[in-house]
Amino acid sequence: MKVLDWMFIAFIVLLVFWLIKKWSGTQGYSKWETNFLLLLGCYHLIMAPIFYGYLLQYGGDGIRYWELSSLPPSRPGEWSSYFGTGTAFIQWFNYPFFQLAGLGFLPGNLLYAVISFMGFVGAFELIKDQFPDKWGNWPGKYGLLILFLPNVHFWTAGVGKEALLFTGLVLVLLGVKSFPSRAWYIVPGLLLSLIVRPIQGLVLTIAVLAVLPFHSALKAYRKKLVSGAAALIFSIFAYRWIQGSLVYGFNFEWIGRIIDWQNAYLSSFEAGSSIPMWDYSLLEKFMAVWFRPYLWEVKGFWTFAAALENTIFFMAVIFGIWGMIKSKLQVRIPLFYLVVLIYAAIMSLIFMLALNNLGILMRMKSIFVIFVVSFFLSQAKRPFTFDKSNL
């Protein structure tokens, strides 16, 4: 690596520690909370070289994104020609760092790790109050350790869309949780999600529209907002259908053809983690999206890590459901959890239809799993009342 690369890496590390200290002081965090974030920051930054090594060995989109070779621009050599949505935006973002500054791939991964770590700082802010010490049980004492689940750190600590999608999601959830004082967070969060992966941005927009009108601060306008939100949600679905119909014809058959093409395209790579999703029952598809690979499907270190995390997730769901049953389903659900649960449910349905590779499923669901896990763990033992504080 060049001297500039090492200088950039040193800058990134120092920036992370400075941001933690600055944020902790602003929020009035205790010494324990500040040290927790420092440990989380070290853990996350370590994932960047691990992700770097993984891509060098197995390949991946991240290398092509960084080298601006995944999607050729209309006018090579012009930064503005790279701008667009999806992959085009990622390459546009990378252009000044790779093409102009000449930074290597490892510093590029650390750059994305810093962006996603801001999401982890926000995630800490979101869920730290969901596990109060006064519970005196293991979720209360150790619930925050879910922030160390490795899958989301791995996929967001390197060049790729997940780093930006995770940060965008956290911004939206922070805006919902602290509405209206931080309501403006929702706008950049949605815009970032929409420009990085439009389909996920639209789903996140639907989740926000479905939940936000029920916030207590908007109670006086609730009837009008619910009607407006319903109209906007319908408009989003209509927009996507018209957009596709202009290309494939005004019918609904093209949706099935695109799904078939997507499955055939992914199967053509003959990856070891491919699964016959199209032949599965609905229950098998659901289990594949959320809980596979299982521990008995382990074939090496990477599948073991994925299977272990899926097992932890499964156990959290079981504990959470059991807690809900004991409370006679009088469940407290903060509004930001409702947003992420709706988002996760819709994205899971899309994954069931369009994906047939366990590795891709682990990557795609990584950005919202820790919030789903934290929700179920937060129901394991608490005073079970319906949360009316935000209604």
From TrEMBL:
Ranges that cross the membrane: 6-24, 36-59, 79-98, 110-127, 139-156, 163-179, 185-212, 224-242, 301-323, 335-354, 360-378
Keywords from UniProt, A to Z, are:
Membrane, Transmembrane, Transmembrane helix
| Protein name per Swiss-Prot or TrEMBL | Glycosyltransferase RgtA/B/C/D-like domain-containing protein
Q: Which organism is it from?
A: Cyclobacterium plantarum
